[in-house]
TrEMBL record:
Residue ranges occupied by any PLL-like beta propeller domain in the UniProt entry: 6-215
Organism from which the protein derives: Streptomyces demainii
InterPro entries listed in its UniProt record: PLL-like_beta-prop
Protein name in UniProt: PLL-like beta propeller domain-containing protein
Pfam families registered for this protein in UniProt: DUF8189
């Protein structure tokens, strides 16, 4: 069976970007829509490669003075500059920031000391960057840009709760940030802003139990938050936001047998694609049957051999075609890319 994809496109051949990586890749788009992918290399060094206009890839670039543990979290701000947030081996939250749009990065800046796990970042309705992370007390914490100039950050604020993995934030179509977290006893919760740019948050809402991975969240074509996770049955499960941008539907199984968390992204035709590492160690994809629908086509293999790190969150290129990065298998641990191309 042919792999379901955006009409007019196909999935291409695998591209080896080499490098020897030690974490889930973390891609982001420049303001000019070129893709940059960050990875943690050996000795906790942060590296990246940038796509050129002709589709080739520039050389690996190392970031002096940066020591990263876990998975980096890049995000492009409303001002067009990328910030890369990460946890250091000493459990501090640091950031490097582009010195200008589409340019290089400045030196690392320490934002918070003594965090509990990797950070995740998202933009608020006014474009300020919010960074969420587990605290040393296992509660959910965040910082955000202090002003619309996007230069300074607030002190950390606790949202309470007890979380067991990196949170997954997204700005929904109603203009409020939604954060999905894995709680105690393998539970799925969300917490949401009370209003656009609000410092007040609603109470945590329980959506599911028996989740065995960090949740992943993306938006459907209507801007509704869609949460995917691995269940205790090793299948992919989904919890979707209702049209009120406030409540969520019941958890539903998508099938598959997977070994780590699913990741998801919105394709060119407005349908969500869900990517997983299956038990055969290949990359598989399931595609939403219809735009904004609740049903998904069955999982289909994209081949490859995925290593021990997770599958990256897909990122669109300048033509809005999805790129999916993975760590390869074996001692080499190369960075591999699978991408959509036009027929």
């Amino acid at each position: 069976m042919a792999v379901s994809t955006t009409p007019g496109t196909v999935w291409g051949t695998w591209i080896n970007l080499e490098g020897g990586i030690h974490s889930e890749p973390a891609p982001v788009s420049f303001a000019d829509d070129r893709v940059q992918v960050f990875v943690r290399g050996g000795s906790n060094v942060l590296w990246s490669r940038v796509e050129a206009r002709d589709g080739s890839w520039g050389p690996w670039q190392q970031y002096p003075g940066v020591s990263v543990d876990g998975i980096p979290a890049p995000v492009r701000g409303k001002d067009g500059r990328i910030r890369v947030f990460y946890r250091t081996p000493g459990n501090n939250l640091q950031v490097i920031t582009q010195t200008a749009v589409n340019s290089g990065y400045g030196p690392p800046q320490t934002l918070v000391t003594g965090i509990g796990d990797d950070p995740a970042a998202a933009l608020g309705a006014d474009g300020r960057v919010y960074v969420f992370f587990p605290g040393a007390d296992e509660a959910l914490w965040y910082i955000r840009h202090q002003d619309p100039q996007y230069t300074t950050y607030t002190s950390p604020v606790s949202l309470g709760g007890v979380i067991r993995a990196t949170p997954s934030p997204v700005l929904d179509g109603g203009g409020r940030l939604v954060v999905a977290v894995k709680g105690t006893s393998d539970t799925l919760y969300t917490i949401q802003q009370q209003g656009e740019n609000s410092a007040a948050w609603e109470a945590y809402t329980l959506h599911a139990s028996n989740i065995t991975s960090r949740p992943s969240v993306c938006l459907d074509a209507a801007g509704r938050a869609q949460i995917f996770y691995r269940g205790s049955d090793a299948a992919v499960w989904r919890v979707g936001q209702n049209i009120d941008y406030d409540t969520f539907g019941a958890a539903a199984q998508l099938g598959g047998q997977i070994v780590w968390r699913p990741t998801c992204g919105l394709a060119q035709d407005g349908r969500i694609n869900v990517f997983v590492k299956a038990t055969d160690n290949a990359l598989w994809v399931a595609v939403q049957a219809t735009q904004n629908g609740d049903l998904y086509n069955g999982f289909q293999s994209l081949g490859g051999v995925v290593g021990s790190a997770g599958v990256a969150v897909p990122v669109p290129n300048e033509e809005n075609l999805l790129y999916v990065f993975v760590q390869g298998s074996g001692v080499a641990r190369d960075l591999w890319l699978q991408r959509q191309t036009f027929v």
